[in-house]
Amino acid sequence: MMKKNWLLLLFLGVITACEDVVEIDLNESDPKLVIEANINLLEDGTSVANVILTRTAPFFDQAVPLVTNASVTITDENGIVYPFLYTEDGIYQGNLIPQPQVVYTLEVIDNGEIYRASEQLVTGPALEIVEQNNEGGFSGEEIELKVYFTDPGDEVNYYFFEGLSTRGDLRDTFNDEFFNGNRIFGFYYVEDLEQGDEVVFNLYGVDAQFYNFMYVLLQQSTDQSGGPFETQPATVRGNIINETRFENFPLGYFRISEVSTVTYTVE
User: What pTM, to 2 d.p., does this model score?
Assistant: First the structure.
């Protein structure tokens, strides 16, 4: 009888232990300013000029903190100032059409600290045609898309590529080390792509520094499952400097690119 009582107590103890709440103590650092400054020169000669300001947040926070009251300007090497005004969702918009071989300096003032970076327009080739393969994927029955362009042969080029649709987004970076001067393609494959789906392809001309920056980011996003117990990725530094407190560097990048866009409807 005594033995049965001990077994009952042990059983109840196990059940009680299973109900304990496990507290996870995650290391948290001070929020950092995140600057996504993209100036895109379109094929029709117009541009899209946006600077998005947010802050980093703790791992389990659902909302992204927006920065709504910063001062944002871009100044060219001739002293012309282009103000960027806040619209919504952390986005500051400006009216700037970048010109070749002109240096542009971004300045963001937030909480009394000054952040700066300088860039020039990087040109790129035009996207040409989209080729559809209906026998792709592991099953041999999936749809794959290739969008072609011709790389200029008289220079070293770097590219940032996007394929965007409601089925899924794909981003990639590549340089012309192995296809300099030749015709090459960006590849797009996601599961469940169907006839009638619309895919937007963007090809950006970028410099070597942005290529390396984005390459590392894409590698980390591919390798990490996102769980709190995984090894967290290293901080990837962009080209923006905090001139007030150097150690309090921001995340993000200031990029000026010529972009070619093709919209394709799956057949």
Answer: 0.86
